[in-house]
Amino acid sequence: MRIGKGVTRRGRVLLLGMILALAAARLPADEVVGTLDAVGSDTLAGLMLRWGERLAERHPGVRLQLQASGSASAPAALTAGTTLLGPMSRPMSAAEREAFVARHGYPPVELEIARDALAVIVHRHNPLETLSRRELDAIFSESRRCGAERPIERWSQLGVTLPGDRIVLHGRNVASGTHDLFRLRALCGGSYRVRLNEHPGSAAVVAAVAAEPSAIGFAGLNHLTAGVKALRRRDAGGEAAAPTPAAVRDGSYSLSRSLYLYVHLPPGGTLPAPERAFLELVFSPAGQAVVEAQGFVTLAPARLAEQRAWLAALPTAE
Amino acid sequence: MTDPRQLRRRRLRDRLATLLITAGGVGVVVSVLAIGVFLAWEVVPLFLGEGALAPAELWQPQPVEGYAEPQHRWRPEPLVAGDAVHYGMAPLAWGTLKAALWALLFAVPLALGAAIHSALYMPRRLRARLKPTLELMEALPGVVIGFVAGLVLAPWVERHLAGALALVVTLPLGAVAAGGLRALLPAFLRARLSPGWAGLWLAPWLLLVGSLTLWLAPALEAGLPGGDLRGWLEATWGLDVASRNALIVGLAMGFAVIPGIYALAEDALSGVPASLGEGALALGATRWQTLWRVVLPAAGPGIFSAVMIGAGRAVGETMIVLMASGNTALMSLSPLEGLRSLSATIAIELPEAAVGATHYRLLFLAALLLFAFTFLVNTLAEVVRTRLRRRYRRLEGSA
Predict the structure, then answer these.
(1) Pairing of the two strands A240-241 and A232-234
(2) Chain A residue closest to B66 (CA)?
(3) Neighbouring C-alpha atoms within 13 Å toward the C-beta of A205
(4) Are residues B247 and B329 in the same domain?
(5) Does residue B348 share a domain with residue B254?
(6) CA B123, CA B144: separation in Å to the nearest integer?
(7) Cα separation of B178 and B209, whole Å?
């Protein structure tokens, strides 16, 4: 009896050992396992989720948990230490950066992950093709800081004949990166007209403009549909810039911006394996293909190579 | 015979149940109060200490760049440090009230009419079907109603403005005309078209009136000076027509408010003791006289509280206003211009407002205002309803 019992126990240990050995054999030594969190921009939500899916294809043990409640939530979560990755559709403000430094003693790492642009859109049947900076400001703002003399409230002032002559304005809401960028670059920092219809998303702006022949609006480039037409911007020399990928990439189309990913990384420190795998994916050709598929514009090759080199130089976690 | 131990156990169980129920009730009351206290706690720092806001900054027009006269502006976030910010909340509060007003203007006649009709005229069989259907209407989420209103109804009204405005006039007139025409019909036909089944024969009639209106509207519009309704409204009345306007919001929110008002008003009307109506009819009053002089006054407080509850819902409603209105913070009464409500502002801006900043606290002030308003309206409605119940009991006791 006693011997038999001993054998069974030994047998069990053996079995356990075999299972472990088998499991170890199935997992390659460098397999990445874990959950990675990201908190931040809702503009970037679609892009982050697609990257998360690609990452899960590469490393089946990794899952991305994304909380996309707005760019302002990223610095707060990074400072509080609840996440290591904070996607933002605007650069961190000085106050946000200071709060992070005050808590941790070093700044967060800023990575540029894609380029984005705002398009000024009209209904697809609108004959208008280009707008100058002053005209755009005179249409959307009540301050006219860009130098226009008179406000533009009617299509006839632009030489366009439409059934509804009064210009109807659509745009994003207060407290969105899109709203702020347009205000800064198109209105010269001035203030919007009160009559601007404020929508809670770029898709809603596009839908509203597509349904209204006398409307004009601004929205993220990646939300455009066949129902609307993007206008080109005419500069002082009469040259018109269209929001093409090349113009967005080098910034010659002025309504463009960079999209960022902030990483909580102490100087000389290492990144956990899931986060590192995620960043490797982001800067890989496959990751940049996702950027394009999502309607954003990929980074300039030089910038991409620079950030890839930074990532490769990071010490690996043991 | 009863075992004293069993008795004791039962008593203990009773006491425990009473305790739990009381705790639940007290818990609910306390948490409602806690919400109010929490909101007030977040708001108080606005008006205290350094950089305190003057109430005039919130409620009175302020000087604005580019304007000679002071204006109401809601511009709570500076773009760069040193930018002018404006905390005018008056347009937001105004937008909330305006949306609720237009919603009630649309919903109250319809809901009360439906309640009176179904409580007093409708055959029981039909009524049993109608009530659940209307309750189903209440189950529709606000997002869906707002989506349909913003992306389907608003563009349609935009394209058929003349027709839509004409419908607002012709449909109620058509319904009244139907009653008049019915009285002129020969007796045998009139008996076929009983008032109880009005829903069945009125619907095709209204459909006819509606299509006729839409068919004739372009011709009518062409008859205006200039041949364009929009231009004519602007030239003669100074009215600006926005595609996302208070009329659309009122229509959509009215749709959401109707079931609530209907249910409460119907309860109040069918709760009027039958002896009252029967007595009036027996004394020779007509149906209309019975309704107008006897039943409605008896149910008056109940109907009032139904409307109050509807108002409370309309003021607090968020998604419908957010999606159907253009969120333009204007101060105008015109039903053809846009609006921005307190609740929609909170929903849009709170996720992006920096915690503890003035903007953040102002959004809490907006929440506090909404809370106080709905609290007052609901309490008022409840008090009136309790009084009504007491009155019924007295009437039934004396009958």
Answers:
(1) antiparallel
(2) A143
(3) 30
(4) yes
(5) yes
(6) 33
(7) 10
Task: Give the nearest partner residue to A207 out of B84, B151, B228, using CB atoms.
Answer: B151
Q: Where would I find the H helices in B50-160?
A: 55-59, 90-116, 124-139, 142-148, 154-159
User: What CATH number does the domain located at A117-256 have?
Assistant: 3.40.190.10
Residue A262's contacts (CB-CB under 8 Å, 6 or more residues apart) are: A40, A74, A75, A78, A85, A86, A87, A88, A92, A108, A109, A110, A111
**Closest by CA position to A189, among listed A201, A202, A179:** A179
Q: How confident is the model at residue B368 (pLDDT cuts 50, 70, 90)?
A: very high
Domain that holds residue B117: 90-159+240-398
Check if the beta carbon of residue A255 is closer than 8 Å to that of residue A243: yes
pTM of this structure: 0.81
Read off the tokens for B223: 């008859």
Using an 8 Å CB-CB cutoff, list chain B residues near A216. none
Q: A32-108+264-313 architecture in CATH?
A: 3-Layer(aba) Sandwich (3.40)
pLDDT bracket for residue B65 (50, 70, 90): confident
Q: Give domain status of residue B228, yes or no.
A: no
The count of other CB atoms within 10 Å of the CB of residue B176 is 9
pLDDT tens profile B187-235: 887 877 777 777 778 888 899 999 999 998 888 888 877 777 877 887 7
What pLDDT score was predicted for residue A12?
63
Interface touch A164/B83, C-beta < 8 Å: no
Domain tally, chain B: 2
Count of CB atoms situated within 10 Å of the CB of B386: 12
CA–CA separation, B297 and B280 (whole Å): 13
Residue A75: which region, alpha, beta or left (left: phi > 0; alpha: psi -120 to 50)?
A: alpha
Residue B115 lies in a domain: yes
Same domain, B19 and B115: no
Chain A residues close to B76, C-beta within 8 Å: 174
Nearest CA distance, A245 vs chain B (angstrom): 27
**R_g over Cα of chain A:** 26
Which tokens go with B294? Answer: 């006897």
Residues of chain A with pLDDT under 70: 1-30, 236-238, 317-318
Token pair, residue B146, equals: 């707002």
> Which of A224-238, B18-32, B79-93, B374-388: highest mean pLDDT?
B18-32
Dihedral angle computed from the Cα positions of residues A210, A211, A214 and A220, in that order, rounded to the nearest 10 degrees? -30
Burial class (CB in 10 A: 0-12, 13-18, 19+), B166: buried
The alpha-carbon gap from A14 to the nearest alpha carbon of chain B, in Å, equals 55
Gap between the Cα atoms of B376 and B364, Å rounded: 18
Structure token digits, residue B120: 């007093």
Q: Which residues, listed in sequence order, are joined to residue A198 by a DSSP beta bridge? A: A171
Tokens 């149906």, residue? Answer: B287
Distance, CA of B306 to CA of B134 (rounded, Å): 15
Report CA B79 to chain centroid distance, whole Å: 36
Q: Residue B352 and residue A212: Cβ atoms within 8 Å?
A: no
Shared domain for B12 and B155, answered yes or no, is no
Residue with tokens 């095709």: B204
The CATH number for B351's domain is 1.10.3720.10
Distance (Å) of CA A236 to CA A139, A241, A245: 17, 11, 22
d(CA A194, CA B67): 13
